[in-house]
């Protein structure tokens, strides 16, 4: 059954039936019952198209004088083609055949296959007045025709095209529907994202202005509105949501927007008169709109009515939706409404009721992957058939980003409609299960792997039109996961990393946001995949002379991005997920092989994969590489000081500007014969640290934590002193020595340009921090009674701070400014001088690979003593652990108090500070010395080498006395 109304035509039912079989109502609505079933109706501006029976197509032109035609319905000669859909423009039409072939209908009624689309399976077509669109089942969108207003979406100044061209800017977006208006175009994605382009003179693109667009632009005002259908008129657009709301935008000249006005709208606005009616279908004519409310069996119309196209018997325009006066025999079962030009129609279609009510007859999206498809792939079948058919289907699926991105969406509670930069709209458990299934059949998994690497990844562009185009980067790690279980996928991971790095900054920001909000287990999988490949290549570089840096670097760069994102996640991975362990052999090997030394230096850009031991090894290796052999000479880099005036002597020397900070430092104490093999320098910095901590006024120890921080003194002399303290600390770090000054982590954060936080105040001044924390928890009355303002120590924290009271509403800001004042504003000049000095004394910028806590431990040393560890690392010469002398030594050592044990470390190594890793990282050799007068001798130490010379004492008491005396009073350093 067909009902139609609008532009005057001969009352012959378009030639579909005999004239006397057509019935008309008083309101001008005609009805007829064709002999063959109507499959589709398309109403263009001057062209009408019908599909009848088993795919037969007929067209009719309305504007007789313009084309010199009879205006009669003409059946098209389609040979063997059976037509599924037809879409009519002003004078041309496109036809979609079963099987996906597209034909173009010219003015002469001749239909020709569009050869440029012959290798594509097209699932949707759409016509504007003079432009055309076609969507293939692999998600590719093609446009052709006039481009006077950018309606082809191919870019500014792009000429009109008579041949279909691929619209690459929407690559990867799984499109559900395409729609063309007069000179504008719309597309709708599976998850409800809407893109528009073309003519925008009346705001019909919904972008908030009237500027034409020459490329697709996302209609952000429709984000998360659950859009399911779009219809375009001459210069207005209607949008239908899943909940049955209708929104219109564009020209309101004839009331076609339904807002009870003739005003244009530049952003989609809900048609209030249809609110609550739950519209199931919409259709736009040239300047009028139809809406079907299925529950009440009513069609509403609004807009231009001078040709009777509103179906109310009037020839006037209508600004609000009013019911169409349909004949009594009208039934809403399985109908489709359509409109175009000045005509309206509804017909009984061949779709089922579910499709009709959803208004999605033409909304066939790209092919997607589901359980049923995967089951068919892995089921047992004839190998020859499998090879010819299944492989082809797998390749088609996995070579299309649109198909992959349209698969695995989370339809529970319509979550995929909530797709945003924080939510991908995916149910990642689905690809995990799908790839695990595929892994059961190696042919399937191998074909998927090859297709993704050779076809899919190379096709990915640098720009993503929206979140949905980036889903592929979340799905593929699940493929890598199953490949890794089979010892495969290494090269695919490298290719995926390279594709990610090709993304432009805006797309990368969106992907980073998706990663930040990814569920924990899937984020962990993502990190594990890239981490395992990094570890694989670094391991290979330790066993071969090949430099795999080209392969490993893109993976490292992606892993670095993931590491940075990890700190922003609500639930974070531990540091261990990023560290690549057991690299010491790697460093040993790389420093010997010249052709891969560059890789060692490159690793410095990725410190997040290195633990502190590896960073130290890397620092030492690269430090040696930058030092010229001549700089190892003792001459010109030896600092001679007096123990009693060590600080003054050092500053005087540094002021001469003769010291080469890049050269290894050698120290000589006045009136002492020791040669510095490393231990004299260690003692030198220990003495300097103690001297500065004791006598300097420019740094002060906190009363409640004992940690040192800058004093308030900001004089020029104090700044100079701080500069040289910074130089000394830098020199200590550069020469791998400890400073006996306990700075807080906040200082090292500032050196690394990291802002200190409230937690740093808790470390430096726990009492002060506790008071502030209590202040944040107080009731409003208590806060007001404290009469605080935005000043601290007489300084305003913000402009006019003395006149701004601290309240419950702004107290967090006050605390934040308080912390900023302590660590930044109050010591700005002091820190600047220290920082400049530290950089002078430590000229090798690689120190920045360390974290703040690591810098602190390397400069101050560890102070956690597990004394049993020392006994485990000792080696023996001329004796063994069972000897009485050695047994007596350890008995005496463990009898000593903590202070004397530390003195033993100073006696043996020049300092009691421990390297990272504690006592287990020390090396101590006890050498038994045989003397005739052994009981008269003291133990001695070769501190440069960690060797203790122990005379063969006759009894434990003598050993005790001599050892305690030696470590308390003797200073024997630098022996050869």
CATH H level of the largest domain: which superfamily? Regulator of chromosome condensation 1/beta-lactamase-inhibitor protein II
What shape does the CA trace take? elongated
Instruction: Tell me the major beta sheet.
Output: 5 strands, antiparallel
Mean pLDDT: 89
Structural class: alpha+beta
Helix content: 25-40%
CATH domain topology of the largest domain: Methylamine Dehydrogenase, Chain H
Count of extended strands? 39
Which strand order does the major sheet show? Answer: 2-3-1-29-28
Q: Can you tell me the CATH class of the largest domain?
A: Mainly Beta
* N- to C-terminal distance: 110 Å
CATH architecture group name of the largest domain: 7 Propeller
Into how many domains do the coordinates divide?
6
Q: Radius of gyration in whole Å, from Cα? A: 40 Å
Low-confidence stretches: 351-362, 632-636, 972-976
Strand content: 15-25%
- The number of helical segments is 29
Description:
Residues 657-976 form the HECT domain. The active site is at residue 944. GO terms for molecular function: ubiquitin protein ligase activity. There is one protein chain. This protein is α+β, with helices and mostly antiparallel strands. It folds into 6 domains: 2-358, Regulator of chromosome condensation 1/beta-lactamase-inhibitor protein II (Methylamine Dehydrogenase, Chain H, 7 Propeller), CATH 2.130.10; 367-484, no CATH class; 519-626; 630-756 and 826-860, Hect, E3 ligase catalytic domains (Hect, E3 ligase catalytic domain fold), CATH 3.90.1750; 769-823, Hect, E3 ligase catalytic domain (2-Layer Sandwich), CATH 3.30.2160; 867-969, 2-Layer Sandwich (Hect, E3 ligase catalytic fold). It contains 29 helices and 39 strands. It has a 5-stranded antiparallel sheet with strand order 2-3-1-29-28. Strands 4-5-6-7 form a 4-stranded antiparallel sheet, with no helix packed on it. It has a 4-stranded antiparallel sheet with strand order 8-9-10-11, with no helix packed on it. The radius of gyration is 40 Å and the shape is elongated. The chain starts with a strand and ends in a 7-residue tail after the last helix.
């Amino acid at each position: 059954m067909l009902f139609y109304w609008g532009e005057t035509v001969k009352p012959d039912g378009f030639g579909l039936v005999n004239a006397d079989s057509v019935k008309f109502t008083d309101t001008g609505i005609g009805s007829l019952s064709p002999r063959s079933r109507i499959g589709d109706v398309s109403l263009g501006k001057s062209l009408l198209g019908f599909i009848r029976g088993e795919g037969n197509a007929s067209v009719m032109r309305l504007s007789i004088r313009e084309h010199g035609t009879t205006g009669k319905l003409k059946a098209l000669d389609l040979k063997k083609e059976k037509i599924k859909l037809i879409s009519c423009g002003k004078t041309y039409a496109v036809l979609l055949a079963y099987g996906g072939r597209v034909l173009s209908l010219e003015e002469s009624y001749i239909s020709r296959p569009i050869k440029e689309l012959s290798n594509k399976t097209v699932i949707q077509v759409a016509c504007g007045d003079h432009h055309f669109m076609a969507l293939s089942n692999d998600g590719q969108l093609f446009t052709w025709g006039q481009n006077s207003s950018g309606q082809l979406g191919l870019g500014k100044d792009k000429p009109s095209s008579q041949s279909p061209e691929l619209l690459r800017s929407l690559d990867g977006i799984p499109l559900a529907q395409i729609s063309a208006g007069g000179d504008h175009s719309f597309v709708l994605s599976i998850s409800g994202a809407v893109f528009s382009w073309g003519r925008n003179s009346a705001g019909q693109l919904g972008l908030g202005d009237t500027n034409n667009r020459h490329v697709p632009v996302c209609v952000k005002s429709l984000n998360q509105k659950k859009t399911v259908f779009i219809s375009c008129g001459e210069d207005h657009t209607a949008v239908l949501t899943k909940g049955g709301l209708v929104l219109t935008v564009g020209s309101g000249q004839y009331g076609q927007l339904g807002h009870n006005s003739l005003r244009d709208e530049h952003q989609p606005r809900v048609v209030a008169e249809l609110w609550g009616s739950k519209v199931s279908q919409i259709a736009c004519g040239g300047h009028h709109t139809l809406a079907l409310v299925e529950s009440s069996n009513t069609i509403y119309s609004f807009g231009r009515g001078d040709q009777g196209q509103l179906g109310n018997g009037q020839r006037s325009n209508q600004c609000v939706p009013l019911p169409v006066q349909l004949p009594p025999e009208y039934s809403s079962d399985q109908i489709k409404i359509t409109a175009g030009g000045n005509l309206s129609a509804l017909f009984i279609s061949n779709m089922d009721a579910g499709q009709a009510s959803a208004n999605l007859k033409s909304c066939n999206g790209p092919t997607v992957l589901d359980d049923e498809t995967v089951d068919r792939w892995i089921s047992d079948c004839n190998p020859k058939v499998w090879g010819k058919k299944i492989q082809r289907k797998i390749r088609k699926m996995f070579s299309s980003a649109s198909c992959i991105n349209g698969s695995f969406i989370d339809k529970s509670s319509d979550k995929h409609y909530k797709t945003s930069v924080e939510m991908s709209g995916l149910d990642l458990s689905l690809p995990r299960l799908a790839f695990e299934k595929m892994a059961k059949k190696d042919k399937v998994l191998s074909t998927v792997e090859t297709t993704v690497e050779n076809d899919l990844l190379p096709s990915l562009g640098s720009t993503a039109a929206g979140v949905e185009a980036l889903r592929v980067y979340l799905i593929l790690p699940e493929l890598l996961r199953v490949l890794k279980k089979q010892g495969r996928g290494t090269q695919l991971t490298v290719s995926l990393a390279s594709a990610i790095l090709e993304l432009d900054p805006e797309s990368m920001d969106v992907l980073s946001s998706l990663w930040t909000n990814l569920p924990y287990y899937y984020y962990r999988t993502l990190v594990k995949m890239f981490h395992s490949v990094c570890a694989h290549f670094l391991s290979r570089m330790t066993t071969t002379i090949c430099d795999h840096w080209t392969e490993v670097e893109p993976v490292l760069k992606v892993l670095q991005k993931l590491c940075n994102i990890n700190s922003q996640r609500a639930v974070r991975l531990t540091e261990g997920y990023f560290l690549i362990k057991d690299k010491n052999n790697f460093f040993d090997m790389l420093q010997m092989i010249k052709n891969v030394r560059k890789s060692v230096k490159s690793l410095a850009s990725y410190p997040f994969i290195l633990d502190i031991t590896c960073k130290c090894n890397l620092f030492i290796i690269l430090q040696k590489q930058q030092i010229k052999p001549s700089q190892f000479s003792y001459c010109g880099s030896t600092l001679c000081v007096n123990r009693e005036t060590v600080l003054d002597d050092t500053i005087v020397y540094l002021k001469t500007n003769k010291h080469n900070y890049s050269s290894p430092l050698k120290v000589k104490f006045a009136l002492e014969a020791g040669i510095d093999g490393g231990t004299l320098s260690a003692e030198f910095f220990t003495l300097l640290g103690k001297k500065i901590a004791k006598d300097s006024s420019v740094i002060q120890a906190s009363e409640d934590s004992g940690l040192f921080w800058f004093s308030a003194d900001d004089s020029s002399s104090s700044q100079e002193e701080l500069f040289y303290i910074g130089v000394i600390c830098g020199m200590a770090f550069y020469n791998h020595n400890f400073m006996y000054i306990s700075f807080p982590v906040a200082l090292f954060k500032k050196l690394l340009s990291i802002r200190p936080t409230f937690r740093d105040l808790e470390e430096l001044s726990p009492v002060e921090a506790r008071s502030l924390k209590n202040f944040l928890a107080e009731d409003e009355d208590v806060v007001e009674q404290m009469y605080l303002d935005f000043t601290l120590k007489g300084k305003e924290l913000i402009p006019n701070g003395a006149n701004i009271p601290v309240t419950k509403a702004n107290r967090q800001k006050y605390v934040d400014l308080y912390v900023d004042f302590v660590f930044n504003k109050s010591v700005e000049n002091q820190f600047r001088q220290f920082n400049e000095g530290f950089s002078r004394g430590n000229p090798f910028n690689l120190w920045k690979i360390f974290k703040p806590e690591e810098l602190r431990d390397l400069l101050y040393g560890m102070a956690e003593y597990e004394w049993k560890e020392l006994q485990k690392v000792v080696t023996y010469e001329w004796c063994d652990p069972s000897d009485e002398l050695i047994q007596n030594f350890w008995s005496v050592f463990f009898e000593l108090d903590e202070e004397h044990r530390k003195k033993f470390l100073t006696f043996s190594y020049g300092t009691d500070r421990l390297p990272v890793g504690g006592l287990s990282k020390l090396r101590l050799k006890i050498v038994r010395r045989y003397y005739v007068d052994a009981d008269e001798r003291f133990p001695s130490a070769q501190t440069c080498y960690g060797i203790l010379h122990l005379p063969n004492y006759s009894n434990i008491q003598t050993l005790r006395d001599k050892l305690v005396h030696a470590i308390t009073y003797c200073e024997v350093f630098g022996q050869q």
